[in-house]
């Protein structure tokens, strides 16, 4: 069990650095060089809104990744969890990692006044939504069956619920994470 837990944490950290680290960090940085536009500087409302989106996205992203490691798996397909993770941010939205990454990208577009980053975010949204629809949802349904179908009926893919889904409190997976 200890070996599984260590592999889960290591795998989760590596996946976090490689995937969201590149998609939400390295690529936006390569577009913006993280340069605040002179007009308004740090006090600009768009910079402040962007910073809030980035900070919020990072918090949600890290929390979502921790949930996978605690469930002895990773978000990466080769090492999934035994049970569907439906706790924490997953009680509000089915794809909190993707929503968080998109929030981080949008936040950077606002902070740095970058149309290029905004267009990049739109491309990421298209690619991620396609991946979710064509691969992830069918895979999760095949892997977790009724558990996933029940979850999918109650929790939206992209727009968070205002109140947490209470079904997660009675799910087997909520005890595992």
From TrEMBL:
Entry membrane topology: Multi-pass membrane protein
Entry GO terms, CC: endomembrane system
Name of the protein in its database record: Protein-S-isoprenylcysteine O-methyltransferase Ste14
GO biological process: methylation
Domain of life per record: Bacteria
Keywords: Membrane, Methyltransferase, Transferase, Transmembrane, Transmembrane helix
GO terms of molecular function: methyltransferase activity
Compartments reported by the entry: Endomembrane system
A Pfam family reported for this protein in Swiss-Prot or TrEMBL: PEMT
Ranges annotated as spanning the membrane: 12-31, 43-66, 92-112
């Amino acid at each position: 069990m200890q070996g599984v837990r260590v592999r889960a944490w290591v795998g989760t950290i590596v996946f976090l650095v490689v995937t969201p680290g590149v998609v939400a960090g390295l690529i936006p940085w390569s577009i913006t060089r993280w340069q605040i536009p002179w007009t308004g500087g740090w006090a600009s409302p768009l910079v402040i809104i962007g910073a809030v989106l980035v900070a919020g996205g990072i918090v949600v992203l890290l929390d979502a990744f921790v949930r996978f490691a605690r469930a002895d798996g990773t978000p990466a397909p080769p090492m999934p969890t035994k049970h569907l993770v439906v706790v924490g941010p997953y009680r509000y939205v089915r794809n909190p990692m993707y929503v968080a990454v998109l929030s981080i990208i949008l936040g950077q577009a606002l902070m740095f006044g970058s149309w290029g980053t905004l267009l990049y975010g739109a491309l990421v949204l298209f690619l991620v939504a396609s991946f979710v629809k064509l691969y992830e949802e069918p895979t999760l349904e095949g892997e977790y069956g009724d558990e996933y179908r029940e979850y999918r009926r109650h929790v939206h893919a992209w727009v968070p619920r205002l109140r947490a889904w209470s079904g997660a409190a009675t799910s087997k997976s909520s005890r595992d994470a």
